[in-house]
Amino acid sequence: MRRMTVFAAALLLASWALAQGFGDKPPVVLAPVGNVQVKAGASKDVSLDFRIGSEFHINSHIPKSPLLIPTALKLTAPEQVTVADVKYPAGQDVTFPFSPDEKLSVYSGDFSISAVLKTPANVPPGTYAVKGELRFQACDHSACYPPRSIPVQFQVTVVK
Amino acid sequence: MKRNALVFVALFVAILAMLASGKYLDRTRKHGVIRLVGNVQGVPAPEFTLQALDGSQVKLSDFRGKAVLLNFWATWCPPCKVEMPWFEDLQNQYGKDGLVVLGVAMDDSEPATIAKFANDLGVNYQVLLGTDKVSDDYGDVQYLPTTFYIGRDGAIVDKMTGLLDRKDIEQAVKKTLNTGDRSSSVPQSQAKAEVKAVAAKEPAAKDATR
Fold it and tell me: Which CATH code, of 2.40.10.270, 3.30.460.10, 2.60.40.10, 2.40.40.20, is assigned to A26-159?
């Protein structure tokens, strides 16, 4: 009976924690990024894959109005790794019911942002963390959410 | 065994209740005010003082006795842009009957940018600069556009989120114009309060204990 009480309490606590986060799920998530391996002195392409919730769209990196918030990836790498040449996909030009006379440049569904990782020849082998965030602003068919950011992080392993 | 089954049923009900309530109760208490949650009809609209684009300070209570359409919007919100010309028309049409449209811009943009945006759209009503506090007080306004219809007595008549049909908006305006006392001297404490949610100010000292 005592074991069951503990189990019940744990389950209630977990449910409470889940309930507090309910409704705060970001409309965009990053697919897991595997460990990126790169030879010292070489460069390597990395693709970051994002998924947008089915009912949402977000502005592309180059929206059609300067007032709209562009999707932007900001990465900070340690000195052993350089992030270069971040490439965004082109947006889809879409007309929505809320603005039938205006096309918006958006991402929906899955999209990927690529970057090139470079390491100097004298970098000691090891694993280095690249951290950053994706900033975006999401809307659905009738309303919009404030701009927000989700963390982006992956490991780069430098080998000889 | 029977007792175990009862415990599981109770647990299941408790979990369902928590999931349902969590949706409404997350981050409810900030700034010493319990935010508007759930059905807000009949609840006294939280008082605010916000800066207008012309630099003046505007208080909600300045409009007691009027029907207020309080629209939260942002320059980055295309659906919000669709409603704004409707609000201009409604202000023109019903202003003489006591309608006051107030736009609350939830932008991080400079006031000049917001002003240009509003001018370009021909906005003829007052635009106020939103703050996190007013957003929180009105229930953590995240989904834009969100519009509150506030009766002449200061109580909320309706809340609408997302882009709706113009006729729905006009219907809410008419309903708001037809409610409450037309005198401007009705104290907020006497506002008709068929309270289904709470928006009461609480002492700041209590807030620290939460």
Answer: 2.60.40.10
